[in-house]
Specification:
This protein has 100 residues and is mostly helical. The protein folds into 2 domains: 37 residues, no CATH class; 63 residues, no CATH class. The protein contains 5 helices and no strands.
């Protein structure tokens, strides 16, 4: 736990209603909840599913995560990576293009 609290691998923050230790407790509850483990993408990987619009935040919270059915959230794959690369290229082009 000492490494978790004082190590360089953690971003330390707090605000008026929560401190770092409270955030660790919440994170621990989410990660160790036996009802939710492997049921949806890890919170640190939401961007993989939301960036290109393939899924919504409601999908992440309401659909199971897995390969078995079409209505599930599918694991990130090669096609998703290609979609992200296309999204990034379009974004860069849009930012570099001068609007008149």
């Amino acid at each position: 736990m000492k490494e978790q609290l004082y190590g360089q691998g953690r971003f330390k923050w707090e605000h008026s209603t929560m401190n770092f230790l409270e955030s660790l407790e919440i994170f621990d509850k989410l990660v160790n909840n036996t009802k939710s483990v492997n049921k949806w993408p890890d919170v640190f990987f939401y961007h993989r599913y939301l960036t290109t619009g393939k899924y919504t935040i409601d999908d992440i919270y309401n659909k199971p995560f897995g390969e078995s059915e079409e209505e599930n959230i599918q694991p990130f794959n090669e096609n998703d990576l290609k979609d992200h690369m296309h999204f990034i290229k379009e974004y860069i082009q849009k930012k570099l293009t001068v609007q008149r």
